[in-house]
Write a structure and sequence with these properties.
2 helices; 73% helix; elongated
Length: 59
């Protein structure tokens, strides 16, 4: 019992922010947005490479 009191009274840093709370729903939505953006960038990169090949073949 005394060990618990020592641990709770110790000056350990918090691993969370008391000023900001992120809901699980918000976190999931942000993850989906990130995944979608990553796919768009990947598609754009692929399209750019294909376009570059077609330009090179014309000249």
């Amino acid at each position: 019992m005394e060990d618990k009191k020592k641990f709770s009274s110790s000056k350990t840093p918090d691993f969370f922010s008391k000023e900001m709370i992120i809901t699980k729903k918000s976190l999931n939505e942000n993850q989906l947005k990130f995944t979608y953006q990553k796919q768009l960038i990947s598609n754009l990169d692929y399209k750019h490479k294909e376009w570059s090949k077609s330009i090179d073949s014309k000249f």
